[in-house]
Amino acid sequence: MKIHEYQAKSLLRAYNVPVPNGDVADTPEKAREIAKSLNKTTIVKAQIHAGGRGKGGGVKVAKTPDEAFEAAKKILGMQLITHQTGPEGIKVQKVLVEETSNIKKELYLGMVVDRARDKECVVFMASEAGGMDIEEVAKNTPEKIIKCAVPPAVGFSPFEARKLAYGLGLSDKALSAQFANIAKGLYELFVGKDASLVEINPLVLTTEGNLIAVDAKINFDDDGLFRHADIKELRDENEEDPLEVIAKNAGVNYIKLDGNIACMVNGAGLAMTTMDLIKMAGGDPANFLDVGGGANPDQIEKAFRILTADPNVKAILVNIFGGILRCDRVANGIIQAAKNIDMKLPMVIRLQGTNVEEGKKLLKESGLKFTVADGLYEAAEKVVALIK
Amino acid sequence: MAILLDKNSRVVVQGITGSEGTFHTRESVKFGTKVVAGVTPGKGGMDVDGIPVYNRVADAVEKQGANVAALYTPAAFSADAIIESIEAGIGLVVCMTEGIPVTDMIKVKQVLKTSKASMIGCNCPGITTPGVGKIGFMPSFIHKKGNVGVISRSGTLTYEAIWQLTNLGIGQTTSIGIGGDPIPGCGFVDLLTLYEKDPDTVALVMIGEIGGTAEEEAAEFIKSNVSKPVVSFIAGRTAPPGRRMGHAGAIISGGKGTADEKFKALEAAGVIVEKNPAEIGKRVQEILAKKGNKK
Q: What ipTM score was computed for the predicted complex, to two decimals?
């Protein structure tokens, strides 16, 4: 789960990580008020769940409260397009208005989970190449990144903080102590709130000799949300694809893609495979959808409604391997659902597993526009042929 | 012979009194599995179809000689249940549960490291040794006893592959779903080691997916440690980057973990990669024919 910069900074404050003074605004007037109360030059930053906001015109410096008003007026409501948003961009609903910092140096500090075998732990990555795309740095100059794996049995220790600090050129005692506090706070946040990614880029060393998190990105482990109601509340549905929001709220595991052949499958691996098969057969998958083990008529109907709500979709491929789930039950569910929603799109149904012959018979005799397939590749070929 | 789940396995089902637990225990028993006990805290003293239920895993170990644990426990309590089993001396823990937080699994791996236990899962369909037993929810009808080992990160995709083999008359020694999570118990490398040592397994099917480096690690391992032929399929060539494709572990992060990278690494290690999932069984058939072994 992603959150906004202003929400991440709120969390950082709670964990004693210094962030610039500021507040979030959803109107130009509020932006002006914040700038006025700060009584300093401010920076007005679009709040969207994507990076590259500056280049896209979503970040402006404001020397006066009136300038903050004007900046917010331009940015709020804009369709901000960056290299991370996709061509349509994201509509900006909020801006963060905060004090600017006197930047002496820009550093990078991030945390991820290393899932490699025998290494499974939280890892810090730090680099003096702050303010840049860390993936570029990792690609071109990996030696500039210092890594620190935190042993789970022990937690984050002062000597590890020193390794990172000295690697960042912060050997001065006061500075390395400041850094250690920040790293410690981030580690506690990461494990305490089940984060999956933390990125402070840049972590700024100011001319006054202070370290401050000028930008912050925090992603959370979806599987940890059940135990963090406060984090769950930070979800912003406006940043997600509307169909995906509907699907998620209906308990359907759905990801929208750009193609025109929709698919409905039981099992994530088989669902990804079905998308791959459609591509192999010359088509373009419109989505990922896993109905899971409970492909009952209700779930199937919900899934069909979501798939057909995408105007790009011209045909649907249903691929179900019935184990405990019986194919004749699935067939009845499909027939019922298709009738209930008055399905107009052509469908290829490929069933395998328990009671497959009964299932196929039911589909053929339903009187509805189904094409029945047997093999995996055959099913993909048939659905691609349907839209040609 | 089979690996991990064999005729000496005595299974305790954690979460046996829940609807999933009860249903799949019944299927397991029908398949021939020796389910000797169940555990649901607070329900000790009950029985499920005559299988005694205890409050603690240690009781099941002590009173029924349980040495394998099957978990159908809620995500919030699964790490605790896993660690309870490991501490009670269980040798193989199989956890079907989806939705366990990554930080919990980091803890579980630590406990596993300093124990003698192995773990399969989480978020997995389980383990089946045809002719002996099954834990989890792989459908019973797809399996046939034979000499191919199957290791997979998927659920229904695994059933497809096994069913293809069975329909070609090719049976399996043991089929294992390692699950879709980013940090599993046993990974490909751990199981390849066991299959390599198993005298009855002559070929392997390895099904991976996007996300992480498990397949690349397996490729590296196979180069110098696996003499048996491996056929591999990787799901997710068309998955967009940065999105979690159903499985928590199926996510291309920072450009890493793509299906194409995995296919490449495996091919370079001499693995027979098959990009058409409908042909997995046929590839195995070809290898076995070459070996002159048509079991």
A: 0.95
